[in-house]
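[stage:ingest] chain + small molecule (flavin mononucleotide)
[stage:ingest] validated
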Amino acid sequence: MNKKVTTNPSDSPFPSPLLLVTANLKGSEPNIITVALAGILSANPPTAYIAVHPDRYSNQLLKESMEYVINIPSQSIVRTADACGVVSGRDVNKFKTLGLTPISASYVNPPLIDECPVNIECKVKEIINYGSHDIFVGEILMTHCNEDVLNANGRPDVNKIDPYAFILGEYRKIGKSIGFYGFSSKK
Ligand SMILES: Cc1cc2nc3c(=O)[nH]c(=O)nc-3n(C[C@H](O)[C@H](O)[C@H](O)COP(=O)(O)O)c2cc1C
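[stage:predict] done
[stage:export] C-alpha coordinates:
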Protein backbone atom coordinates (compact mmCIF):
# COMPACT_ATOMS: atom_id res chain seq x y z
CA MET A 1 0.00 0.00 0.00
CA ASN A 2 1.25 3.54 -0.75
CA LYS A 3 1.80 5.83 2.22
CA LYS A 4 -0.72 8.69 1.80
CA VAL A 5 -0.11 12.13 3.30
CA THR A 6 -2.40 15.16 3.08
CA THR A 7 -1.52 18.29 1.08
CA ASN A 8 -3.14 21.70 0.59
CA PRO A 9 -6.51 21.21 -1.22
CA SER A 10 -6.17 24.51 -3.08
CA ASP A 11 -2.79 23.37 -4.47
CA SER A 12 -3.99 20.07 -5.93
CA PRO A 13 -1.96 18.73 -8.87
CA PHE A 14 -4.95 18.77 -11.19
CA PRO A 15 -4.09 19.08 -14.91
CA SER A 16 -6.13 21.86 -16.52
CA PRO A 17 -6.45 23.02 -20.12
CA LEU A 18 -4.83 26.31 -21.07
CA LEU A 19 -7.16 28.47 -23.11
CA LEU A 20 -7.38 31.99 -24.50
CA VAL A 21 -10.90 33.37 -24.28
CA THR A 22 -12.00 36.35 -26.35
CA ALA A 23 -14.89 38.62 -25.36
CA ASN A 24 -16.05 42.08 -26.27
CA LEU A 25 -18.93 44.47 -26.38
CA LYS A 26 -20.35 45.41 -29.77
CA GLY A 27 -18.34 48.28 -31.21
CA SER A 28 -15.52 48.00 -28.64
CA GLU A 29 -12.05 46.49 -28.95
CA PRO A 30 -11.97 42.73 -28.34
CA ASN A 31 -10.13 41.43 -25.27
CA ILE A 32 -8.30 38.18 -24.45
CA ILE A 33 -8.04 36.42 -21.07
CA THR A 34 -5.96 33.34 -20.23
CA VAL A 35 -8.14 30.74 -18.51
CA ALA A 36 -7.23 27.41 -16.94
CA LEU A 37 -10.39 26.87 -14.90
CA ALA A 38 -12.43 25.48 -17.78
CA GLY A 39 -13.80 22.34 -19.35
CA ILE A 40 -16.65 20.54 -21.09
CA LEU A 41 -19.91 20.14 -19.13
CA SER A 42 -22.15 18.30 -21.57
CA ALA A 43 -21.81 16.47 -24.89
CA ASN A 44 -25.41 17.11 -25.94
CA PRO A 45 -26.04 19.98 -26.24
CA PRO A 46 -22.29 20.54 -26.55
CA THR A 47 -21.55 22.81 -23.58
CA ALA A 48 -18.36 24.27 -22.13
CA TYR A 49 -17.63 26.34 -19.04
CA ILE A 50 -15.05 28.91 -18.04
CA ALA A 51 -14.58 30.26 -14.50
CA VAL A 52 -13.67 33.95 -14.45
CA HIS A 53 -12.95 36.03 -11.34
CA PRO A 54 -15.23 39.09 -10.90
CA ASP A 55 -12.19 41.43 -10.81
CA ARG A 56 -11.20 40.58 -14.40
CA TYR A 57 -12.13 43.03 -17.13
CA SER A 58 -13.32 39.99 -19.10
CA ASN A 59 -15.90 39.20 -16.41
CA GLN A 60 -17.63 42.50 -17.14
CA LEU A 61 -17.47 41.90 -20.91
CA LEU A 62 -18.85 38.37 -20.54
CA LYS A 63 -21.76 39.49 -18.37
CA GLU A 64 -22.70 42.31 -20.73
CA SER A 65 -22.26 40.45 -24.04
CA MET A 66 -23.15 36.87 -22.95
CA GLU A 67 -20.81 35.47 -25.63
CA TYR A 68 -17.24 34.20 -25.84
CA VAL A 69 -14.80 32.30 -28.02
CA ILE A 70 -12.47 29.67 -26.56
CA ASN A 71 -9.20 29.64 -28.51
CA ILE A 72 -6.79 26.73 -27.99
CA PRO A 73 -3.15 27.86 -28.28
CA SER A 74 -0.31 25.65 -29.54
CA GLN A 75 2.95 25.32 -27.63
CA SER A 76 4.57 27.68 -30.14
CA ILE A 77 2.71 30.65 -28.59
CA VAL A 78 3.05 29.70 -24.91
CA ARG A 79 4.74 33.02 -24.03
CA THR A 80 1.94 34.97 -25.68
CA ALA A 81 -0.66 32.89 -23.84
CA ASP A 82 1.08 33.62 -20.53
CA ALA A 83 1.23 37.33 -21.38
CA CYS A 84 -2.57 37.41 -21.88
CA GLY A 85 -2.87 36.25 -18.27
CA VAL A 86 -0.70 38.87 -16.60
CA VAL A 87 -2.02 42.13 -18.06
CA SER A 88 -5.56 43.49 -18.19
CA GLY A 89 -7.52 44.64 -21.19
CA ARG A 90 -8.43 47.66 -19.08
CA ASP A 91 -4.83 48.85 -19.58
CA VAL A 92 -3.71 47.43 -22.94
CA ASN A 93 -5.09 46.12 -26.21
CA LYS A 94 -3.67 42.59 -26.05
CA PHE A 95 -4.34 41.85 -29.74
CA LYS A 96 -2.20 44.83 -30.73
CA THR A 97 0.60 44.58 -28.13
CA LEU A 98 1.02 40.83 -28.63
CA GLY A 99 0.69 40.88 -32.43
CA LEU A 100 -2.36 38.62 -32.55
CA THR A 101 -4.89 38.69 -35.39
CA PRO A 102 -8.65 38.90 -34.73
CA ILE A 103 -10.87 37.25 -37.34
CA SER A 104 -14.67 37.34 -37.46
CA ALA A 105 -16.63 34.52 -35.88
CA SER A 106 -19.73 33.03 -37.50
CA TYR A 107 -22.33 33.39 -34.74
CA VAL A 108 -20.89 35.59 -32.00
CA ASN A 109 -19.39 39.06 -31.79
CA PRO A 110 -16.01 38.25 -30.16
CA PRO A 111 -13.33 37.31 -32.73
CA LEU A 112 -11.39 34.10 -33.24
CA ILE A 113 -7.63 34.38 -32.65
CA ASP A 114 -6.07 33.47 -36.01
CA GLU A 115 -2.84 32.26 -34.36
CA CYS A 116 -4.77 29.57 -32.39
CA PRO A 117 -5.52 26.40 -34.43
CA VAL A 118 -8.88 25.73 -32.72
CA ASN A 119 -11.61 28.28 -31.98
CA ILE A 120 -14.89 27.44 -30.26
CA GLU A 121 -17.82 29.88 -30.39
CA CYS A 122 -20.02 29.87 -27.27
CA LYS A 123 -23.24 31.56 -26.17
CA VAL A 124 -23.63 32.02 -22.40
CA LYS A 125 -26.61 30.06 -21.09
CA GLU A 126 -26.09 30.54 -17.37
CA ILE A 127 -23.80 32.32 -14.93
CA ILE A 128 -23.23 30.62 -11.59
CA ASN A 129 -21.25 32.30 -8.84
CA TYR A 130 -19.18 29.66 -7.11
CA GLY A 131 -16.79 30.82 -4.41
CA SER A 132 -14.10 33.08 -5.84
CA HIS A 133 -15.17 32.75 -9.49
CA ASP A 134 -18.20 33.15 -11.76
CA ILE A 135 -18.84 30.16 -13.98
CA PHE A 136 -19.97 31.02 -17.49
CA VAL A 137 -21.77 28.02 -18.93
CA GLY A 138 -21.59 28.31 -22.71
CA GLU A 139 -23.37 26.34 -25.39
CA ILE A 140 -20.92 25.55 -28.19
CA LEU A 141 -22.38 26.94 -31.40
CA MET A 142 -19.50 26.20 -33.75
CA THR A 143 -15.93 24.89 -33.70
CA HIS A 144 -13.33 26.06 -36.22
CA CYS A 145 -10.06 24.22 -36.89
CA ASN A 146 -7.17 25.23 -39.11
CA GLU A 147 -7.27 22.92 -42.13
CA ASP A 148 -3.66 21.94 -41.55
CA VAL A 149 -4.38 20.46 -38.08
CA LEU A 150 -6.90 17.91 -39.44
CA ASN A 151 -5.90 14.32 -40.21
CA ALA A 152 -6.74 12.37 -43.39
CA ASN A 153 -10.22 11.58 -42.00
CA GLY A 154 -10.98 15.25 -41.33
CA ARG A 155 -10.69 14.90 -37.54
CA PRO A 156 -8.55 17.23 -35.41
CA ASP A 157 -5.08 15.78 -34.90
CA VAL A 158 -3.76 16.37 -31.37
CA ASN A 159 -0.12 16.23 -32.49
CA LYS A 160 -0.76 19.00 -35.00
CA ILE A 161 -2.82 21.17 -32.62
CA ASP A 162 0.00 20.75 -30.08
CA PRO A 163 -1.97 21.91 -27.01
CA TYR A 164 -0.54 21.94 -23.49
CA ALA A 165 -1.73 21.69 -19.91
CA PHE A 166 -1.45 23.92 -16.84
CA ILE A 167 -0.54 22.14 -13.61
CA LEU A 168 0.86 23.42 -10.30
CA GLY A 169 1.63 26.80 -11.85
CA GLU A 170 3.55 25.37 -14.84
CA TYR A 171 2.82 24.85 -18.52
CA ARG A 172 3.39 21.20 -19.42
CA LYS A 173 3.53 19.41 -22.74
CA ILE A 174 0.95 16.77 -23.61
CA GLY A 175 2.88 13.66 -24.66
CA LYS A 176 2.37 10.68 -26.93
CA SER A 177 -0.92 8.76 -27.07
CA ILE A 178 -0.91 5.89 -24.55
CA GLY A 179 -4.34 4.42 -25.31
CA PHE A 180 -7.80 5.40 -26.50
CA TYR A 181 -11.36 5.45 -25.14
CA GLY A 182 -12.40 1.85 -24.44
CA PHE A 183 -9.13 0.26 -25.58
CA SER A 184 -8.96 -1.85 -22.41
CA SER A 185 -11.95 -3.92 -23.55
CA LYS A 186 -10.75 -4.40 -27.13
CA LYS A 187 -9.04 -7.66 -28.16
C1 LIG B 1 -1.91 30.29 -16.64
C2 LIG B 1 -3.00 31.24 -16.20
C3 LIG B 1 -4.27 30.76 -15.95
C4 LIG B 1 -5.29 31.63 -15.54
N1 LIG B 1 -6.55 31.14 -15.32
C5 LIG B 1 -7.55 31.98 -14.97
C6 LIG B 1 -8.88 31.49 -14.81
O1 LIG B 1 -9.19 30.31 -15.03
N2 LIG B 1 -9.83 32.38 -14.43
C7 LIG B 1 -9.56 33.71 -14.19
O2 LIG B 1 -10.47 34.48 -13.83
N3 LIG B 1 -8.29 34.20 -14.34
C8 LIG B 1 -7.30 33.37 -14.74
N4 LIG B 1 -6.03 33.85 -14.94
C9 LIG B 1 -5.76 35.27 -14.69
C10 LIG B 1 -6.22 36.18 -15.84
O3 LIG B 1 -5.84 35.62 -17.09
C11 LIG B 1 -5.56 37.57 -15.65
O4 LIG B 1 -6.01 38.14 -14.44
C12 LIG B 1 -5.80 38.51 -16.82
O5 LIG B 1 -4.88 39.57 -16.75
C13 LIG B 1 -7.22 39.07 -16.83
O6 LIG B 1 -7.36 39.84 -18.00
P1 LIG B 1 -8.54 40.90 -18.22
O7 LIG B 1 -8.54 41.84 -17.02
O8 LIG B 1 -8.16 41.57 -19.50
O9 LIG B 1 -9.82 40.14 -18.32
C14 LIG B 1 -5.01 33.00 -15.38
C15 LIG B 1 -3.73 33.51 -15.65
C16 LIG B 1 -2.74 32.62 -16.09
C17 LIG B 1 -1.37 33.16 -16.41
